[in-house]
Amino acid sequence: PTPPPALPTAPSLPPPATLSPSSIHGNVHWIDVDLAHQTLTAYEGQTAVRTTLISTGLPRTPTPVGLYRIYLKLRYDDMSGPGYYLPDVPYTMYFYRGYGLHGTYWHSNFGHPMSHGCVNLPTPEAEWLFGWAEVGTLVNVHW
């Protein structure tokens, strides 16, 4: 049998440090995660369609910088690690290993690093993003 096709790669995109709306052509959906300003912006091509405050990784558990693609979407997922267990984390979209974008019910301190490396969003914003983004959507994480 023929193996399934691999997820598309983005060899024609500039490196994450220079990815900007002007470097995206067409109406492609992509997500910009700005660690310095603790914001997430959803783009359709060069047009910002939604921006929200987020909470990313603490210095000891940083959010990985780079250009990724969402590879798995789960309406709810249980998350755990050293010192925490969070059941039913809503609207989870994984983009790199165990790192994801997701809703957050355990804090509302958005705009400040708070996480173990994931990108925490207010749950209503995560719900919107979950409906808007597809598997394969670009996620640009940068300072």
Describe the structure.
The protein is mainly beta and 143 residues long. It has one domain: Beta Barrel (L,D-transpeptidase catalytic domain-like). It has 1 helix and 9 strands. It has one helix at 123-132, and strands at 29-34, 39-44, 47-53, 66-69, 72-81, 84-96, 99-104, 119-122, 138-142. The strands form 2 sheets. Strands 3-2-1-9-4 form a 5-stranded mixed sheet, covered by helices on one side. A hairpin with a 4-residue loop joins strand 1 and strand 2. The protein is globular.
In short:
The protein is 7% helix and 43% strand. With 143 residues, it is mainly β.
Tell me the total number of β-strands: 9
Shape: globular
Helix count equals: 1
Assign the CATH superfamily. Answer: L,D-transpeptidase catalytic domain-like
Domain count: 1
Just give the CATH class. Answer: Mainly Beta
The CATH architecture can be given as Beta Barrel
CATH topology label = L,D-transpeptidase catalytic domain-like
- Give the DSSP E fraction (strand runs of 2 or more residues): 35-45%
What is the alpha-carbon Rg in Å?
Answer: 15 Å
What order do the helices and strands follow? EEEEEEEEHE
Could you tell me how far the N terminus lies from the C terminus, measured between alpha carbons in angstroms?
Answer: 44 Å
- Helix/strand-derived category reads mainly beta
User: What composes the largest sheet?
Assistant: 5 strands, mixed
Mean pLDDT score, rounded? 91
Helix content: under 10%
